[in-house]
Each structure stands twice: as structure tokens, then as C-alpha cells.
Design brief:
The chain has 265 residues and is α/β, with parallel strands linked by helices. It has 2 domains: 14-67, Vcp-like ATPase, Chain A, domain 2 (Roll); 72-261, Vaccinia Virus protein VP39 (Rossmann fold). The chain has 7 helices and 15 strands. The strands form 4 sheets. A 7-stranded mixed beta sheet has the order 9-8-7-10-11-15-12, sandwiched between helices. Strands 2-1-6-5 form a 4-stranded antiparallel beta sheet, with helices on one face. β7, α4 (114-123) and β8 (128-133) form a beta-alpha-beta unit. α3 packs parallel to α4 (114-123). The protein is globular and about 70 Å long. The chain starts with 13 loop residues before the first strand and ends with a strand. It binds S-adenosylmethionine (SAM). The site of S-adenosylmethionine has 22 residues, from α4 and β8.
Amino acid sequence: MQAGGAARFVPGEMALVLDPTGKRYLICLADQDTLHHHLGTVQHADIIGQLDGARVRSSQGRVFTVVRPRLIDAILEMPRKSGIVYPKDAAHLLAWADVAPGQRVLESGVGSGALTLALLRAVGERGQVIGYEVRSDFLELALSNVHAQANPRPTNLLLREHDIYTGIPDQDFDRVVLDLPEPWRVVPHVRAALKPGGWLAAYTPSIVQAGHLVETVRATGRFVQIETNEVLLRGWHIQGQAVRPEHEMVGHTGFVNVARLVGEL
Ligand SMILES: C[S@@+](CC[C@H](N)C(=O)[O-])C[C@H]1O[C@@H](n2cnc3c(N)ncnc32)[C@H](O)[C@@H]1O
């Protein structure tokens, strides 16, 4: 992943341009390209070679700010063909399933790769993410999204075209992370693939799915710390006397379910 800080912007890199009002534009830098804006054009060439946080002037002399995008900025803007796990849910999932540097994580389905990017960030270079996905077109999109954000390209990501309902051919995972229509069908396979003490995490859009998963997990007698949460995120507008919640919020996305595998008696 791009570390930010002292490295200068280079062609091919993503940059987040903030206009004088703070409105954001995510661009991929290219020597000859131009950002067209009603407050003037901004030449990519004026950004390339600058440091993170640089101020550049548009053709109308207006000041634009250029920063490296946060991973969540890039995830929300990247091309997608599937529903994605939104950053608020991904952050919660990473914390509740205790995903940490050096871990070996199984992810399925991979979809557009939004959660894959968050997992790669969390496990770091010493960790590994293995992703199973049934659709080859989704695998291609996910890989292209990961490569667009990760520089240099990660060598610790392995994507397989595989139906996880039929089994888990890899083993010794510290974490298994699911975003599938029927995650409960994976539970019988998870017990052999996940190390004891490891966490299973599953994102489910509906509470009916969450209920089915939780009851399946509980019935095995092999999981503890079984928890289901919904994350509500409400931004606030703070400007002078105008201090109030944002008028709009994402009302519902889904549920984050976690459970921890323990040994047999
Ligand atoms: C909602 S999308 C995942 C989105 C992804 N978490 C993201 O953040 O971009 C669900 C994915 O699961 C895949 N899928 C469905 N059934 C599957 C199975 N049995 N094995 C592997 N992948 C499966 C679908 O093709 C789809 O890409």
C-alpha cells in the first residue's frame, strides 16, 4: 500500500483533489490529463512530483489541495459489480474479529474486492489473504481494484475461483471472513480450516440470514463469543452555531456476526 508522507506523487497513482469548498475528486494521475472544474482546470502535471498535501492553482487561480486518498475514499469510489462491505462495517468486522498483522485470513466471496483491501491492510505484508469467489468476472474486477490501490502489488493475496459451499481446500487460517448469500453452508467446513481460537466473521445484509447463521454456529457446540451487531454511523455538521447531525445518513447496510472456534472436549 502507498504509505503517504514523504513520497512524491507519481503518474499512475491515485490522488484526491479537494476544491476550495472541500468537495472531493478522486483521480488517477497521468502526465497529459486535466481535471475540469467550474473554478478552472487543474493539470495533473502540476500535481505529479508534489508532496502529499500540496496546494496547486487552477487555470482561474483558485487553490486546490491534493492528498493521498484514505483507503476508504478509494473503496467508496472504485468500480463495483457487487454490493460491497462499507467501511463502517469493515472497520467493525476487523475489530470484532480481531484481524491483526501477520494473520492468515480466508475471505469469501470476494465480490468487488472492497473487504479484500481492508483485510490486506489489516494483515500487513507478513500476513496473507486467500479469497474464494465463484464468478471469474468478479475475481478479475477485485484483482484490478486491489492493484489500483496497492503499490507495490501485494504478493500476499491469493484469489481462487472456487465454490466455498463445496469445501475449503486450504487450511490453518487464523480468521475466516464471509460475505455470502448463505454463510451457514460454510460452517461445517470452517471447523477444519480455522485454527482453534480463531474467529469466524460474516457480514449479512438481512437479520434473517444473521439468525440462520448464528443458530447454525451455536448448534455445533464449537463456538463461543457469538455476537451480532449492526453499526449505525451518523456524521455531524459543525460550523459556527450550526451544529447538528448531517441531514442524510445511510440508514441500514447489514449485520456483522462473529464467533470464535474452540477445541473439542
Ligand atoms: C456481496 S458480494 C461480496 C462483496 C465483497 N465483500 C466486497 O466488499 O466487495 C458476494 C459475493 O459472493 C460470491 N459468492 C456467492 N456464492 C459463493 C460461493 N458459494 N462461493 C464463493 N463465492 C460465492 C458472489 O459471486 C459475490 O461476488
